[in-house]
Amino acid sequence: MNTYLFLLYNFIIGFVSDLILNYLSTNDIFVKSLKSYFENKNLIVAGIYAGLTIVIALIVQIYLSKIIFKYKIPNKFSEIVKYLILAYIVGYIFDYIIYKFKIFDGLEQYYKELGVGHWGAIAFIFSILISLIIQKFIIKNYNN
Question: What predicted TM-score, i.e. pTM, was given to this entire model?
Answer without folding.
Answer: 0.93
